[in-house]
Amino acid sequence: MRIRLHAVLGGLVLCAHSPVSTVAGEEKDSVPDFTRDVLPIFEAKCLRCHGAKKRAGKLDMRTLDALRKGGVTSPAIQPGNARKSLLIELLHYNEMPPKKETPRVTKEELELLRKWINAMPVPSATSPNR
Known about the structure:
51% of the residues lie in helices and 0% in strands. By secondary structure, the protein is mostly helical. It folds into two domains: 1-30; 32-119, no CATH class. α2 packs across α5 (107-119). The longest helix is centred in the first third of the chain and has 28 residues, at 2-29. The radius of gyration is 21 Å and the shape is globular. The model is unreliable at 5-26 (pLDDT under 50).
């Protein structure tokens, strides 16, 4: 009887700890979501110049489609390839937001944006362009 009680209690202890570590691991490895994770960064640091009222460089950063379309120079993002995304390049080299603007994009936010872009499906050659 004592052995069964210890086994049951041990099992309960293991079960109690497992979901917590699994959920934390899933959150850490989950793909960032545009609305939940990315848009708040843009709202805080980008949309005053690339939003509804003003579109510097003809770039609107409020929607995923607008980011794919880009502005004057090129698309802001290259789905599946953060290294070739103009957005990441400008943020990485602190060219955007402009130096006089605060708050700046943090290293953690930049990593989240890289992860988000890299996780995006790459459009096939036969799919319609933007």
